[in-house]
Amino acid sequence: MILTRDIAYHQQGRVPSVRHSHTDSDSLEIIQILSGDGNALIGDQTYPLAPGILLFIDASTIHSLNPQSEADYCRNKLIVCRSTVEKSLRAAGALSLLGTFEEYGGACFTLAPETAGEIDELFRRMAEQGGDNAVVFPAFLRLITMLSPQDRLYAQTSDSRVARVLHYLHTRYTEPITIDMLAEDAHISKYYLCRLFRSSTGMSIVQYLNEQRLTSARRLLAQTRRPITAIAQDCGFGSPSHFCALFHEREGMTPRDFRNLHNRHT
What angle do CA 183, 187, 188 make, to 5 degrees? Predict the structure, then answer.
C-alpha cells in the first residue's frame, strides 16, 4: 500500500507547490512552518503562516498557503494517502485520530520550541528514509498524538469583510452568486473586495467559488449515482457543459471518467 505521496525536509524558496491552492480527494497534509510569514486558508478559515506553526489539512478541503516572501519561506511537509492511513489506523484501533483533520477540514497548532524540535526530527527521519511506510506511519502517529488542545490556534481573519464573504461562499455556493452581490453585502466596491479577498486567501473569489462547487461535485460523483446533469445543478453550476469543462480543466478527466475511476478503487 502506498502511504507517502510527498515528503520534504526544510523545503525552502521558490519550488513547486510552495504557493498552491487545490483540493485532493484522497490526501492528508501536515505542514510545519520553520521561517517566513503570511497566511493559510483551509475551507473558510484563515490561519497565520509563521515559525512554530503546524498545519493539519484534509486535502479534500479547499486550501491555499500564501507566504509573503517565498525566498524567506521554509517548511517541512508530509502528504499521505488518506485511504491507506484510514486502513492502518482502523487496524490499530485508532481511527478517531483522524478527527484532527476532519474538524473544519483541518487545524492549526502553535508549537513550543521543544515540541517544534521533536517534530522537525521526525520529519528528518521520514525524509531520510524516502517515505518508507515502516518509518512514516509510526512517525505520523507520534506526530498527531503529541499535540494537546491547549496548542490549538483558532482561525483568525484580519478583515471581517473577507470572513463574511468566505462564509457566504462556503455555505451558499449552490446559489447564483455574483461579485456585485458580495460587494454590496460587504459595503465596499467590487474592485477593492477582489483585491482584499486575494490578499487574504491567495485565491480570487471566482477561483474559490469554483473550487467549492467542484469539491461538492467530486463528493457526489464518488458517493452517489445521481446524473451528472443533476450534480451540475445541485452544485451551482450554470450549465452541465460549463461544469464538465471546468471539471476537465481541474481534474484532467471528465466527470464520468472520475466516477468510473473512483468506483474501480472502492
Answer: 65
Count CB atoms within 10 A of the CB of residue 118: 14
How buried is residue 92: exposed, middle or buried, by Cβ count under 10 Å (0-12/13-18/19+)?
Answer: exposed
Note whether 208 and 169 are within 8 A (CB): yes
Rounded CA-CA distance 186/164 in Å is 8
CATH architecture of the domain with range 160-265: Orthogonal Bundle (1.10)
pLDDT digits over 100-125, tens only? 887 768 899 999 999 999 999 999 99
**The three three-digit cell numbers of residue 22, written as one number:** 487545490
Where do we find the cell 493559510? 40
In whole angstroms, what is the distance from residue 215 CA to residue 253 CA? 15
- pTM reported for the whole predicted model: 0.84
Contact 255, 63 (CB under 8 A): no
**Topology of domain 4-151, CATH:** Jelly Rolls (2.60.120)
